[in-house]
């Protein structure tokens, strides 16, 4: 994993993205040089970067950058075909409609399309022929109880190709939950065992750490030898990009890094919100007009749905969305969770909710300053009171503005229970702790992928 502006990324994902972008730009620059048009190099590079950005979005939507076990040939071909159907027309449009500065612009267009084909096919081949042992960190889990098993299961879910070399028994465990064949012999010290197995990382997942249960000296030796040593809370933050409610404590949150608000960060985020919301409003205005007309024609009632939500520091504000439910959705006056297949949703409402079009009027909330482009989802006061009483640290999410999209929204499917709220809070806490302009940009990019694929459709 690589940490960039407090956010953890898979090293191989970063290398894949850089390789794809570099290949596209390099091909276009070589073509421009081959035609003797050195003055067109800046244009070729800018067009190439634009195309690389679109290819990144498309490959993200197809899942080519997501860690996964070896895919079948049929699935890989289907993903590659989907990517090419979208990417090739985009490449043609970019290099045909925009000036290239070349005497023969068709050559550059053809080169761009060939570069796209090469990138997509290479990414598909790499996904199909993935080698489980290539470039993977070897991880040793210190512990053999439920916590250790939870670490292993979460790591395999986040990265199906993760190499867990075994579980080293240590400390005082209430019970052994790990299968016997996965246990590593404890006859040798943990440092000697880790070096023998070629371990890159140790995750400490002991149920009991008091009374000298943790081998501090040996763990220090491991760190001196260049082996990363993580506590269980940091493991979840690093590998799953979430703050695990089951394994975090106030001391870890208080004395660790993160939660950097600051005047500069707030000013940069506000500028980002204004520019991005204005841009999206201009681009989406025709779509919003059609959506408003469809909502009005299908059912009687207002086009927009306005409701009071809880915002920054617990202050109430009125959120605006396209109405997707019947006007009598809460005729008894009692607040209800919106469910995945809610019978109160209209036919038009199902479509605009699935494609997130119903969220577009919230861009006006962003312009007014009551919301941000990226942040935790705003909830109603009734549910906030319930969730604060039942879920620890829930109020922490109100230390930043709520967002049109967010880390929890792109990482967790739509939920309608207290348990779902707790699971999503783990991602919200990660965002509040580590938010930056870089993470905001990644979330907005991933939001595009979510809309294209319909993941988490409501």
Automatic annotation (TrEMBL):
InterPro entries: Bact_transf (IPR003362), EPS_sugar_tfrase (IPR017475), Sugar_tfrase_EpsB_2 (IPR017464). It is found in: Membrane. NCBIfam families: EPS_sugtrans (TIGR03025), EpsB_2 (TIGR03013). Residues 269-452 form the Bacterial sugar transferase domain. This is Sugar transferase (PEP-CTERM system associated). It is a multi-pass membrane protein. Keywords: Membrane, Transferase, Transmembrane, Transmembrane helix. Belongs to the bacterial sugar transferase family. PANTHER family: COLANIC BIOSYNTHESIS UDP-GLUCOSE LIPID CARRIER TRANSFERASE (PTHR30576), UNDECAPRENYL-PHOSPHATE N-ACETYLGALACTOSAMINYL 1-PHOSPHATE TRANSFERASE-RELATED (PTHR30576:SF0). It comes from the Bacteria. Pfam families: Bac_transf. One of its GO terms (cellular component) is membrane. It comes from Inhella inkyongensis. The chain crosses the membrane at residues 12-34, 40-65, 77-95, 107-126, 274-295. One of its GO terms (molecular function) is phosphotransferase activity, for other substituted phosphate groups.
């Amino acid at each position: 994993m690589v940490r960039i502006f407090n956010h953890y990324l898979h090293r191989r994902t970063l290398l894949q993205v850089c390789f794809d972008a570099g290949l596209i730009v390099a091909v276009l620059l070589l073509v421009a040089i081959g035609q003797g048009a050195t003055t067109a190099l800046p244009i070729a590079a800018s067009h190439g970067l634009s195309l690389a950005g679109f290819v990144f979005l498309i490959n993200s939507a197809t899942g080519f950058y997501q860690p996964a076990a070896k895919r079948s040939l049929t699935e890989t071909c289907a993903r590659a075909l989907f990517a090419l159907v979208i990417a090739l027309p985009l490449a043609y449009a970019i290099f045909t409609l925009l000036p290239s500065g070349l005497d023969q612009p068709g050559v550059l267009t053809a080169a761009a399309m060939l570069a796209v084909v090469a990138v997509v096919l290479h990414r598909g081949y790499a996904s199909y022929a993935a080698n489980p042992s290539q470039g993977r960190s070897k991880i040793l889990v210190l512990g053999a109880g439920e916590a250790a098993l939870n670490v292993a299961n979460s790591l395999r879910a986040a990265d199906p190709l993760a190499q867990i070399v075994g579980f080293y028994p240590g400390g005082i465990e209430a019970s052994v939950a790990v299968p016997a064949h996965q246990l590593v012999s404890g006859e040798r010290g943990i440092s000697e065992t880790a070096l023998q197995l070629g371990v890159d990382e140790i995750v400490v997942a002991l149920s009991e750490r008091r009374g000298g249960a943790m081998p501090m000296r040996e763990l220090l030796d491991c760190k001196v030898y260049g082996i990363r040593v993580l506590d269980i809370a940091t493991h979840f933050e690093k590998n799953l990009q979430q703050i695990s409610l089951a394994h975090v404590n106030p001391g870890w949150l208080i004395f660790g890094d993160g939660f950097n608000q600051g005047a500069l960060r707030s000013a940069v985020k506000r500028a980002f919100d204004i520019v991005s919301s204005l841009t999206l409003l201009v681009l989406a205005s025709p779509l919003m007009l059609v959506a408003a007309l469809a909502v009005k024609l299908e059912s009687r009632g207002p086009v927009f749905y306005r409701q009071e939500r809880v915002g920054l520091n617990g202050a109430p504000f009125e959120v605006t969305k396209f109405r997707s439910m019947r006007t009598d959705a809460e005729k008894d006056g009692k607040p209800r969770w919106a469910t995945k297949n809610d019978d109160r949703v209209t036919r038009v409402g199902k479509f605009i909710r699935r494609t997130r079009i119903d969220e577009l009027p919230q861009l006006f909330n962003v312009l007014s300053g009551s919301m941000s482009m990226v942040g935790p989802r705003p909830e109603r006061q009734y549910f906030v009171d319930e969730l604060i009483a039942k879920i620890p640290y829930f109020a922490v999410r109100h230390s930043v503005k709520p967002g049109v999209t967010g880390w929890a929204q792109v990482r967790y499917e739509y939920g309608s229970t207290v348990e779902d709220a707790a699971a999503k809070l783990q991602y919200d806490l990660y965002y509040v702790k580590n938010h930056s302009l870089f993470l905001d940009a990644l979330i907005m990019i991933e939001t595009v992928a979510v809309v294209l694929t319909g993941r988490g459709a409501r």
